[in-house]
Please model this.
Amino acid sequence: MPSAAPPAPPTVAPAPPPRRARASCSQRIGAGLVALLALVLLGTASWLKPDARGVETHTQLGLWPCGWYLATGAPCPTCGMTTAFAAAANRSFFTSLRTQPFGFVMALAVAVSFWAGLHVAIFGSRLGSLIAGLLGTRVVIGTVVLLLGAWAYKWAVMRA
Model:
């Protein structure tokens, strides 16, 4: 008598791919607010006409002239930032960089913040957590060094 075929091994369904963690609702709202704030900042900057002197563009917003600049004739640490933002927002990147290097870097950072915030808000990406994890002591110290270097640059350019 022929022997019975051995029983078939039990089939195991393949494990589903792991679900990637998504941003929470509050993280998505926060990212959306970051994107909105960045958009307002860049939109306002694009509305301004960069002052040819490289300073005092903020007076177009109805703000007072810089007291430090008026009192000393020397640039303050953030001198030219609004002008650099306005130039960058109007796609005059070289003018922005030449006016205030740190302002140019900050304008780029705000533009990146807009797109990253929008991405997190719409898709629930964890990109915001990744970026936040990179912002440590070294980044803060590097930012301060860049600000001071840009201030020295602005001081030298205005003295020339």
Remarks:
- The mean pLDDT is 89.
- The CA atoms of residues 35 and 114 lie 4 Å apart.
